[in-house]
Amino acid sequence: MIEKTQELFSRTDYVHTLLGMPVYDSLQAQKEEVFLSLIKNLTNHHFDCCDRYRRVLKSQQLASPQEIQNIAHLDDVPFVSVNLFKHFTLKSVAESDVVKLLYSSGTTSQQKSRVYLDKDTAQLQSKVLMRIMQSFVGKQRLPMLIADMPLSEGNTTDDGYTARGAGIQGLAFLGHHHTYLLDRNMQLNLDGLRAFAATYGQQPVLLFGFTWVLWSKVILSLEEKQVSFSFPKGVLLHSGGWKKLRSVAVDNPTFNSHVINRLGTQKIHNFYGMAEQVGSVYVGCELGYLHCPSTADIIVRHVQTLQPAELGEPGIIQVLSLLPLSYPGHSLLTEDLGRIIGVDDCRCGRRGKYFEVLGRLPKSELRGCSDTL
Amino acid sequence: MSNDEIMPAEAVKHTVARLTYPGGAFAVDEEVYLDRPFSAQSKAFISQLSHRLMESASGEFSNDLMALGFWFRDAAVNQLQAEQEKETQALLKPVGVVFQVAPGNVETLFLYCGLLSLLLGNFTLIRVSRRRNRLFDKLLGLLNELLSLPVFSSICQRWQLIDCDHSDPTIGQISAGCDLRILWGSDATIQALRQIPLKPSAKDLSFAARCSLAVISVAAVQQAVSDDSPTYQRLIEYFCRDAFSLKQQACTSCRAVVWILEGVDAQSCAAEVIERFWVDVCKYCLRHGINFAGVELVQRVTARQAMAIVCENDCQVLSGENVLFERLQVSELSSTLMAQHAGCGLFLETAIKDMCSFVLPDAMGVQTLGYWGLSKAQISAWLQDALKRAPMRAVPARTVPLGQMNQFERVWDGYDLCRELTCQMVIG
Q1: CA atoms within 13 A on the CB side of B197
Q2: Residues of chain A contacting B253 with CB distance shorter than 8 Å
Q3: CA–CA separation, B420 vs B98, rounded Å?
Q4: Is the C-alpha dihedral spanning A195, A200, A201, A204 positive or negative?
């Protein structure tokens, strides 16, 4: 039996602290001081409550809460591989407290991550997501277009949500009068779009979609039909990665110019996030750089040594989030390649680290008889 | 698999263009498709290929090319023939139509087994993996050059490479017509391929996922270190060859080390020797540009953390300052642990008193056990003793000195490929 740490971790205080931090205003040094202390508490919480996570930490010379408290730098906060969630159930709450189950998109392997959310975590994710997004689109809820099918038609599983479903559900809070641009067969709902444009076309509206879906199902369909719309006061948020777009040679500027052309929306923000860390997303600023919000941070690690990379050097992205209370996914080694552009000095005015994602780590030429496929 | 993961190779198209297998009902015309074992023509083809492989063995992949060429050198083929003829009193006939589904990433493997099949007179069809790299292309280039010579036109008919998807109906057609199907791959791949029916008289020979490990005598290392002898340098070189030459991905790659403590003065002494060993392995890696990167690191971390989760007793990461590979110390090896292993520079490590007390866990599926600092007689005694006890299944089918773990042999996973590829005849 592991002795429980004496109330190191009061959920109410913790959540209160998180929601009180300004999203982008702290200098990295100031932020890290608070962030480190909070993430150590969170690490301890999972050490206490998740037997499997504790085993992992113990194998890495972090055998006690004291040793976790002794961590002096953010770089030394232990991470787990994001793939672990594909192979094991990892949660820090009782089964009866799980209110929601998320599945990752699982694009690179058949196995999908399972992420268990309790009420507090789900609420926290939703609140933090709102706070981050509101800093880009304003506090007022706006009429909203969603470049996907309604949740009643798909993006759910028998017992939970896919990453896309979770994203739609989370973002939908930002808007009202939601119009879904695709039907259950992923065909463009042009009538719906026309009606929406007629009613809200000239006022501020919000558009959201997953990058690839938005491109292949909405933008390309509009081009095929040679139809354009004008949402001059619209804001477009999109996410989901560029892998498929790169395979058809579409980069960020091309994407944006086609969107401007077909939807007349100038304000376009891409954001980076994952099913394993819903809520504390990294939104692209006016200059196109992704910014760490107060509740999240990233570390880029050297591709051969896993040591922290130099500023500007491409490496493997580790994501840290203060939100996961119900599962030990607060510090994850991803399979994404990225680089930190700078710290505290982005010309958009936001403080902290800003970075770009360079895509998935390239599949290596692994040798060996492990597979014939 | 998406397109960006397949490197289209001109060479493949070339070879595949030769594909003329009769298909469907497999009305194999013996005159065209079968040959006598060790026929002059097969031997001539293999001899020339062997020469070309060894000649071209320079720079990148020189070890792989040299090893393959050397394996099929004239002397070796002649010896193989002599052995076979002696065993069978020169009554030999091919098994018939042999269909091999080759693994993706030990590029030369399809040739070891495929050329052996040709040599023994079989009509040989090889489905090559769609994962391609420079070594594979190089091999195909050499093959095409040779196969385009008029003198080898009949080889082209009897020995064919197939480039198709796993879901392609060709796989089913050939399976239905072949006499022996040889499957290499992960457990899942093999299970999937096995669902494709064979004709009743045919059989499957499958080489599923296995793992390999090394036992090393600490006392012997200690001795070698103190002499600072070439022996010690060779140990490091052999170990690195067995561990890293196939990126620790092959069934024969060394993935775990068992230290034999017998003959070491003190526990602390042993720890020092072992540390020194790893430091030198690390130096060797640095000198030879051996490293793991990107996805490999993520796979390694995933596997290592998964092991910590499934490990029944405590385990400890022991990597220290070294960042090229990782070591995970466990109190004993188990199949559960090994099942999580993904190669990519991770070593499970454990120490035992002496060789006699070394028992491999059942179901671990050890392919090869490499040894160092122990005599062949000691290993042989250990094997004989182990066979007297249960579980017999845990006794490895192949034990070789360190440095030879990845070498191909005609007896693989306990099967003599020469026997499997010929039809045994009985004279009553």
Answers
A1: 3
A2: 368
A3: 10
A4: negative
Give the domain CATH number at B156. Answer: 3.40.605.10
Please, which residues 100-139 of chain B have a Cβ atom closer than 8 Å to chain A? 101-107, 109, 129-131, 133
Beta strands in B209-345 (DSSP E): 211-217, 254-260, 315-317, 326-330
Structural domains in chain A plus CATH codes: 11-360 (3.40.50.12780)
> What is the rounded CA–CA span in Å between residue B393 and residue B363?
7
Q: ipTM score here?
A: 0.91
In this structure, the answer to whether residues B357 and B381 fall within a common structural domain is yes
C-beta of residue B256 within 8 angstroms of C-beta of residue B347: yes
Supply A174's token pair: 């930002």
- Terminal CA-CA length for chain A: 45
Three-state DSSP state, B401: strand
Residue B426 buriedness (CB in 10 A; 0-12 / 13-18 / 19+): exposed
pLDDT in tens, B276-291: 999 999 999 999 999 8
| Percent of chain B residues past pLDDT 90, beyond the cut | 57
* Cross-chain residue pair A87–B297, CB shorter than 8 Å: no
Q: Are strands B411-412 and B415-416 parallel, antiparallel or unpaired?
A: antiparallel
What is the 8-class DSSP label of residue A240? S
Q: In a mutagenesis test of the A interface, which of B100, B305, B310, B325 is the best target, namely the one with the most A β-carbons within 10 Å?
A: B305
Nearest CA to B112 among B87, B80, B152?
Answer: B80
Phi, psi of B183 (to 5 degrees): -115, 130
CA angle B415, B418, B422 (to 5 degrees): 110
B259 touches A: beta carbon within 8 Å:
no
Rounded distance between C-alpha atoms, residue B108 and residue B123, angstroms:
20
Structural domains in chain B (count): 2
Picking from A55, A362, A370, the nearest residue to B294 by CB comes out as: A362
- Which residue in the block uniquely carries the two structure tokens 């909070």? A38
d(CA A272, CA B196) in angstroms, rounded, equals: 43
**Residues of chain A with confidence (pLDDT) below 70:** 1-8, 105-110, 159, 364-373
Domain identity same for B146 and B222: no
A364 to A184, A354, B293: CA distances (angstroms): 37, 28, 8
pLDDT bracket for residue B394 (50, 70, 90): confident
Residue range of the domain that includes B350: 211-401
B109 and B230 assigned to the same domain = no
> How would DSSP label each residue in B192-206?
HHHTS---TT-EEEE
Q: Which residues of A touch B326 (CB under 8 A)?
A: none
Pairing of strands B315-317, B366-372: unpaired
Summarize chain A as % helix, strand, coil (round to 5): 35, 25, 40
B window 314-353, beta carbon within 8 A of A:
314-317, 323-324, 328, 342-344
